[in-house]
Amino acid sequence: MADLSSFPLTKIWPAANPDVIQLYSFPTPNGVKASIMLEETGLAYEAHAVNIMKNETWGPEYLALNPNGKIPAIIDPNGPGGKPLQLFESGAILIYLAEKTGQFMLADPAKRYETIQWVMFQMAAIGPMFGQLGFFYKFAGKDFEDKRPRDRFVAESKRLLGVLESRLTGRDYIMDEYSIADIALIGWVRALTVFYGADEILEYASLKNVPAWLERCLARPAVQRGLEIRARG
């Protein structure tokens, strides 16, 4: 049985089965990337719900795993060379799990980098912009008298949806087949309507390809399971 005692976080969230991947996450657009990927690959894992609403990522134990204090993070007891690996940043986790399993990353070298390119697009553009839109449209920002910040992120989010709409013209998924590029985007695009309620202000109904793509992704059983961060028995 693997020994994970050197990881301080396991003292707060003990591993029932230390031989499987330990997932520390919460059902946010970033958090569900890792759980969806784990469900899709079929890798054995144990989920620990880290409640960001209660600031559970800011204790010294969690910061020892991710000094940036964000979810998700994983501990793989069987990392490279058979040694335990701790990893944070959702994009890095997606790439690692794709390479570990040989799944959801196209084998052709050029296509591989193209897939990573779209993951980086989500990390650098979609996530930050959609997140700011949520703040200024739904949360505290909605009470700001100055609406210019909100309008800026609305406009940029609409532009980014246009990029996705164009990319999905004539194709079912971001790449030639379902991949980590899709997994990276599912939670964020879903949040626009399900969580932020920004359908109308973004003119989401005027899009054709993006809603159809999201529906295809959400129909996948592994995606449905991964949208929840639940403890495994």
Automatic annotation (TrEMBL):
The keyword Cytoplasm does not apply. Pfam families: GST_C, GST_N. The keyword Nuclease does not apply. It comes from Devosia psychrophila. This is Glutathione S-transferase. Residues 108-233 form the GST C-terminal domain. The lineage of its organism: Bacteria, Pseudomonadati, Pseudomonadota, Alphaproteobacteria, Hyphomicrobiales. Belongs to the GST superfamily. Keywords: Transferase. One of its GO terms (molecular function) is transferase activity.
